[in-house]
Amino acid sequence: MRIGELSDRTGTPRRLLRYYEEQGLIAAGRSANGYRDYDERFVDRVLQIRGLLNAGLPTRIIKQILPCLDKPRAIYFPDATPEMIATLTHERDRMTDRIRCLTRNRDAIGEYLDAVLDYNRADAEVAASAESSSDRT
């Protein structure tokens, strides 16, 4: 697929896709006319990259852990420096904390929404009952 389609399917600007390619996060083949040609698997790859970037991981770390996202996995342990291990440990723990916070917030919103919907249902039933009573008189 061409860069425009990859951009549309992932919601990622073309400029950013070119940057991912420069960083070695994705790779494009070239068609006869020189246009970039991306394999279908890069749709998921780009979405994973965006998620990792949004989680705060730098591209140099993402590049090192990308093999962990592939099936079959091809992990190269010599790349695992103490700095990388510390960074990944910190980021994993930060993501875990964020997930806990997001879960609490989602649950609180759900409880609030349930209460509002219950209130609105009860209010509608009272209004319908009142209207029914006034129609009989």
UniProtKB/TrEMBL annotation:
- Which residues lie in coiled coils? none
Specify the HTH merR-type domain's residue ranges.
1-68
Q: Which residues form the signal peptide?
A: none
Keyword match Nucleotide-binding:
no
Q: Pfam families this protein is in?
A: MerR_1
Q: Which Gene3D superfamilies match?
A: 1.10.1660.10
Keywords assigned by UniProt, alphabetized: DNA-binding
Q: What PANTHER family has UniProt attached to this entry?
A: HTH MERR-TYPE DOMAIN-CONTAINING PROTEIN, REDOX-CYCLING DRUG-SENSING TRANSCRIPTIONAL ACTIVATOR SOXR
Record-given protein name? MerR family transcriptional regulator
> Origin organism of this chain?
Streptomyces decoyicus
